[in-house]
Amino acid sequence: MVKNNKLFILIIVSLIIGVAMGGIVHYQFPDSIDVFSKNIKLLGTIFIRLVQMIIAPLVFSTLVVGIAKMGDMKMVGRVGAKAMAWFISASLISLLLGLLLVNFFAPGKGTSIKLEDTSSASELLENSKGFSLEEFVKHVIPKSLFEALATNEILQIVIFSILFGVALAAFSKKEAKPIIKLLDTVSHVVLKMVTYIMWTAPLGVLGAVAGAIAKHGFEVFTLYAKYLGAFFVGIVILWLLLLIVGYLILGKRLFVLLQRIKSPLLIAFSTTSSEAVFPKMVEELERFGCQPKIVSFTLPLGYSFNLDGSMMYMTFASIFIAQVYGIDMSLGEQLTMLLVLMLTSKGVAGVPRASLIVVVATCAMFGIPPEGIALILPIDHFCDMARSMTNVLGNALSTAAIDKWESKPEEHHG
């Protein structure tokens, strides 16, 4: 816990230094903005790539071992059903909350934001053109385990690992023991690597924040004040809902859980990557007292299906673009959009800037100019900070809740 607190303090200090450095470069050295932003962001890139390097072996080894140790396929089915029920409920609530707030605050109506150049959105527009049912299936089902491991496709790795774990559990304990022991050792070695890599997190935070502030400056907050204000009200409400549900299930242990995951929350906020804290989350949830087999099964699923912050943002951003273009959508159209987002969002889990790609694809589907995504790109980094942190909280709570439901009272020992 002392080490955890030291890391937390270092991240806070790095966050403050990053904001200060970015602000100085933006206002005092405007000619150096592009060079500084490009170079300082390398610190964040180094940290995230170090983490991405260990995600695939960690997901595969822990998930296979977790399922094999469960042994009982009824338990696998029961835990999976509870997890999916939580994920679908949380996703619908998050999408609906975004829909309600964007209609209530109407940040896109009478906005001073101008769309002069859409070139910044060209990459996203290209990425979303091939979005279809065929692409969804290709994204979910792996063609090759090694391709999935190489490209860090968490959902594909999860599918293979579940099948492998179920098959392994069908063997006798004597036959399965060597493979389980090997993969168990691999997962512990990878978790040991996590403790080393996490000490580079403060540098990653500094690089990511300094680069964003240097590029956009502080004026971006005043220009998008209405949009940001409404969005952050939504994030606060979503956090309150999640914490209330968490307290009803976990009781006072909720505060122990929050203490445990404070560093992952801050890293996700600063680096805009919930994926970057996946290995640390495995470690902290096990230290909290969750059973390793529940953590290794539920958490990877959550990273594919339970992105509460991103879900809320999708409806919010889509309707915002419609408002800017003066497109009035009926209640029926908006609810249809909500259901479409519920399905399509699962097809791009783990894809960089997945939320924006889904927004572009959905806008095109409902006759909203998809190039309108360029309107929100300048502020997206700062919204992504809140989205990522909310995704981490949602996954921590879902894993802890499912562990509580699957455990006997005496098994809880944080």
Automatic annotation (TrEMBL):
It comes from the Bacteria. The chain crosses the membrane at residues 7-27, 47-71, 83-106, 154-172, 193-215, 227-250, 347-368. This is Dicarboxylate/amino acid:cation symporter. Keywords: Cell membrane, Membrane, Transmembrane, Transmembrane helix, Transport. It comes from Flavobacterium helocola. It is found in: Cell membrane. It is a multi-pass membrane protein. Its main location: membrane. InterPro entries: Na-dicarboxylate_symporter, Na:dicarbo_symporter_sf.
